[in-house]
C-alpha cells in the first residue's frame, strides 16, 4: 500500500518457479499482492519461470499479472571447441581470462564411468588424478553451470566443456566462467562424447570469439522459458508474451563476482545474465513507457496493447521457433508473441478488464465469496448464475472441450474491444482457424465513431474432438485478428481436449 501511495505505476516481480506446481490464487502471495496493485491501477509483470521446456512449467498464472517468457536476442558470445581430429563444435562462453591460445589438452568425460554425480560434475565428484591438467566434459543440470567449472578447477582441470542434454536441446546461455569453458548444445555435446569414446587419446582446445551481433534467427524462444498450458486456469493462456531474456547486459553489484559464487573475487560494474527474470523487466519498462504515453490506460489495456501487437515472426521473417526443439513455437511457448514496443504504442484496439471482471472470473472457477475476499481484501458477491471463466475479456482465447463430447461441439467467447486509435474506424476480422476446427465471428465488422468507442463480438469455436489431431503440445492453435488497414490486432486461439 505504501508503494501505491508513492505513485507507483509499474511493479516488476522477477520471481517464478515451482516446476509447474502453482498454489491456488488465494494461497499465492504474489497473486494476492498483484491483485491489490492491479485493482488500484498499477501494472504488474512477473516472470514465467525457468523450468522449461517442460509442458505446464509456466508460473505466475493470475489473469491480472502480465506473465513474461524469455526469448533470445541477435547478439551472441561464440566459442569454438576444436577437437584433435580437426572437427569444430560451436558453443557459447563469456570467459574473459587467459586464453588457451590453441594449445591442445587431453579431454576426459567423467560420465563414462556411469556415475551420475561425476557426469554432472557435482561437488567432490571428480577424481583429481583423472581431471588434473585436462579439459573436463560436464553434463548440464542439477547444479549451477558456473559451479561445475569451480568443481573442475578444484580437481585441477584446465578447462570445461558443458554439454546440454536432450531437455535443454540447443538452448545456450553465456556464463562468466572461472576457467576456460564453453557450453555446447545437445547435438554438439553428443558429437563430443562420441569423439571421446571412440578415440584412444582425445584432445581439444577452446577458442573464444568475443561478441557477435546480427545473429539470425532471432528472437527464438529460450529453451528454459516456462511453458503452457496454464496448470491452474487452463481457460487463460499463459505465458502472455515473451521478451528479451538471454544474455542480457545489466548493472551488477560489486558485492559479488560475476558468477555469484563465494570464491569468485572478480569485480565488475556490469554482467550478462539469462532467465525470465531478465525478460520480465523488459515488459515492465515497456509498460512504464506505455503508461507515460497513455496515462488513462488501465493495467489490462497496457498488457492487451503488448499482446495484440506482439511479433510472431523472427528477423528472417519466418515464424518464431523454439530453441529446445528447433520447431515452430506455439502460444504455449511464446504466448501472443515477442514484445514489439513500437507497435504497442499505437495498438488500435485494446481488451480492457475491470476489477469486477476479475471477481466474476474467480467466481467462474469455483471460488466462494469468502475465499475471493482473501484476494480482493473487500467483500464480494458472485452472480446467481455461475459465470464462465473463459468469458473474461482476455486478449487470447482458450477453448477446452471435454473428451467425452460426442460429435461436434461448440464454445462461444464474448469479447469487447475499446478503440484507442482514430475515432472513426472500421475493423474487419481475419481468422486463422486451428487445424480441424471451425471458427466464426459475429459481427465480422466493427464500426467505431467518436460516440461509439466500444464494440463487442462473439467468437464461436466448433470442433469434433474425436477427429482432432493434436500435436506434441496436446493442442491446436490459430488466431483471430482485427484490422482497419493500419492496425493489426491479433489474439491467439488455443483448442484443447
Automatic annotation (TrEMBL):
UniProt keyword list: Glycoprotein, Hydrolase, Protease, Serine protease, Signal
Record domain Subtilisin-like protease fibronectin type-III: where: 392-495
In terms of superkingdom, the source organism counts as Eukaryota
Task: List each copy of the PA domain by range.
Answer: 105-192
Localization in the cell = Secreted
Where does the Peptidase S8/S53 domain start and stop, copy by copy? 5-323
Q: Please tell me where this protein is predominantly located.
A: secreted
The answer to whether keyword Protease applies is: yes
Q: Which family does it belong to?
A: Belongs to the peptidase S8 family.
What is the name listed in the Swiss-Prot or TrEMBL entry for this protein?
Uncharacterized protein
Amino acid at each position: 500500500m505504501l508503494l501505491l501511495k508513492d505513485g507507483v505505476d509499474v511493479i516488476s516481480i522477477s520471481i517464478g518457479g515451482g516446476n509447474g506446481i502453482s498454489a491456488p490464487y488465494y494461497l499465492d502471495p504474489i497473486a494476492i499482492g498483484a491483485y491489490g496493485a492491479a485493482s488500484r491501477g498499477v501494472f504488474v509483470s512477473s516472470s514465467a519461470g525457468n523450468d522449461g521446456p517442460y509442458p505446464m512449467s509456466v508460473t505466475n498464472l493470475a489473469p491480472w499479472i502480465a506473465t513474461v517468457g524469455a526469448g533470445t536476442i541477435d547478439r551472441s558470445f561464440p566459442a569454438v571447441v576444436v577437437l584433435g581430429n580437426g572437427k569444430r563444435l560451436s558453443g557459447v562462453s563469456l570467459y574473459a581470462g587467459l586464453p588457451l591460445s590453441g594449445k591442445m589438452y587431453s579431454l576426459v568425460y567423467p560420465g563414462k564411468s556411469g556415475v551420475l554425480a561425476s557426469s554432472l560434475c557435482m561437488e567432490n565428484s571428480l577424481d583429481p588424478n583423472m581431471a588434473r591438467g585436462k579439459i573436463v566434459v560436464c553434463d548440464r543440470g542439477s547444479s549451477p553451470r558456473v559451479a561445475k567449472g569451480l568443481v573442475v578447477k578444484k580437481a585441477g582441470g584446465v578447462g570445461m566443456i558443458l554439454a546440454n542434454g536432450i531437455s535443454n536441446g540447443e538452448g545456450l546461455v553465456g556464463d562468466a566462467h572461472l576457467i576456460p569453458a564453453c557450453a555446447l548444445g545437445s547435438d554438439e555435446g553428443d558429437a563430443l562424447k562420441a569423439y571421446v569414446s571412440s578415440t584412444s587419446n582425445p584432445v581439444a582446445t577452446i577458442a573464444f570469439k568475443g561478441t557477435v551481433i546480427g545473429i539470425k534467427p532471432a528472437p527464438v524462444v529460450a529453451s528454459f522459458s516456462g511453458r503452457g498450458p496454464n496448470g491452474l486456469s487452463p481457460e487463460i493462456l499463459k505465458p502472455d508474451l515473451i521478451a528479451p531474456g538471454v544474455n542480457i547486459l545489466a548493472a551488477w553489484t560489486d558485492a559479488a563476482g560475476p558468477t555469484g559464487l563465494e570464491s569468485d573475487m572478480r569485480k565488475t560494474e556490469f554482467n550478462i545474465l539469462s532467465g525470465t527474470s531478465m525478460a520480465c523487466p523488459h515488459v515492465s519498462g515497456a509498460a512504464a513507457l506505455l503508461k507515460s504515453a497513455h496515462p488513462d490506460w488501465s493495467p489490462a489495456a497496457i498488457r492487451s496493447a503488448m499482446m495484440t501487437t506482439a511479433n510472431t515472426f523472427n528477423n528472417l521473417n519466418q515464424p518464431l521457433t523454439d530453441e529446445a526443439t528447433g520447431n515452430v513455437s506455439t502460444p504455449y511457448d511464446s504466448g501472443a508473441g515477442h514484445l514489439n514496443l513500437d507497435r504497442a504504442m499505437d495498438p488500435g484496439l485494446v481488451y480492457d478488464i475491470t476489477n469486477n471482471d476479475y471477481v466474476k472470473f474467480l467466481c467462474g472457477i469455483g471460488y466462494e465469496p469468502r475465499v475471493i475476499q482473501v484476494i480482493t481484501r473487500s467483500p464480494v458477491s458472485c452472480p446467481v448464475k455461475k459465470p464462465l471463466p473463459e468469458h473474461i475479456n482476455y486478449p487470447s482465447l482458450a477453448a477446452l472441450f471435454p473428451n467425452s463430447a460426442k460429435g461436434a461441439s461448440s464454445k462461444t467467447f464474448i469479447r469487447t474491444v475499446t478503440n484507442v486509435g482514430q475515432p472513426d474506424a472500421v475493423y474487419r476480422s481475419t481468422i486463422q482457424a486451428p487445424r480441424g476446427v471451425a471458427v466464426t465471428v459475429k459481427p465480422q465488422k466493427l464500426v467505431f465513431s467518436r460516440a461509439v468507442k466500444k464494440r463487442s463480438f462473439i467468437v464461436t469455436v466448433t470442433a469434433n474432438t474425436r477427429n482432432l489431431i493434436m500435436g506434441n503440445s496436446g493442442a491446436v492453435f490459430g488466431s483471430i485478428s482485427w484490422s482497419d488497414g493500419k492496425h493489426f490486432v491479433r489474439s491467439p486461439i488455443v483448442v484443447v481436449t
